[in-house]
Design goal:
The complex is a heterodimer of chains A (115) and B (112). Chain A has 115 residues and is mainly beta. Helix content of chain A is 0%, strand content 48%. Classes of the chains: A mainly beta (115), B mainly beta (112). At the A-B interface, strand 10 of A face strand 6 and strand 10 of B.
Chain lengths: 115, 112
């Protein structure tokens, strides 16, 4: 079974530029999550999708971050414009169901450096 | 407010020694508790989880954790560690509102 795929693995940009990350979840998983993991901290949930609908985006900085999950499969996360404090690893995860008891399967992450 | 605390940011240990990574959570009527592991340059993966039932939970790679309601703890243990256990370990908690809260992580360094 293929795991969660993410691209790119690494990205370096300058502040005020825009960047996009892509995620393809495990086939058949209805729920998709985007997390931000700053060095030395645990992952912070940015947005949770159930199929192509948003379940939770309470911690997404909506003035600069956007995400979509067209057709309920793969997803993109965009930052525009980027700030220095956006430097982090962006993790995508998927699960079969949407409850907290469901195991989340994580991709390898995208390491973003904003200069 | 609901919270989870990993009491040690770093744990150095020698190979084949036992290890305990400590985790405390804020009290709640019902809880879900998880331990996730992040190996160097790899994605996070689930080690084990407690949803209900037996308080002793066994996970992958010889790890186990015990849910202690009176002490609001969910410590992770392994009787004998290997070099390959070197990784970052995260305790994750969901209380009454069922939102996952991640700890800051414990870095386990296994030395030969």
């Amino acid at each position: 079974e293929a795991g969660v795929a993410q691209s790119p693995r690494y990205k370096i940009i300058e502040k005020r530029q825009s960047v996009a990350f892509w995620c393809n979840p495990i086939s058949g998983h209805a729920t998709l999550y985007w997390y931000q993991q700053i060095l030395g901290q645990g992952p912070k949930l940015l947005i949770q999708f159930q199929n192509n609908g948003v379940v939770d985006d309470s911690q997404l900085p909506k003035d600069r971050f956007s995400a979509e999950r067209l057709k309920g499969v793969d997803s993109t996360l965009k930052i525009q414009p980027a700030k220095l404090e956006d430097s982090a690893v962006y993790l995508c995860a998927s699960s079969l169901g949407q409850g907290p008891a469901d195991t989340q399967y994580f991709g390898p992450g995208t390491r973003l450096t904003v200069l | 407010a609901q919270s989870v605390t990993q009491l040690d940011s770093q744990v150095p240990v020698f190979e084949e020694a036992p290890v305990e990574l400590r985790c405390n959570y804020s009290s709640s009527v019902s809880v879900y508790l998880f331990w996730y592991v992040q190996y160097p340059n790899q994605g996070l993966q689930l080690l084990l989880k407690y949803l209900s039932g037996s308080t002793l939970v066994k996970g992958i790679n010889g790890f186990e954790a015990e849910f202690n309601k009176s002490q609001t703890s969910f410590h992770l243990r392994k009787p004998s560690v290997h070099i390959s256990d070197t990784a970052e370990y995260f305790c994750v908690y969901a209380g009454n509102n069922r939102k996952l809260i991640w700890g800051l992580g414990t870095s386990l360094a296994v030395n030969p």
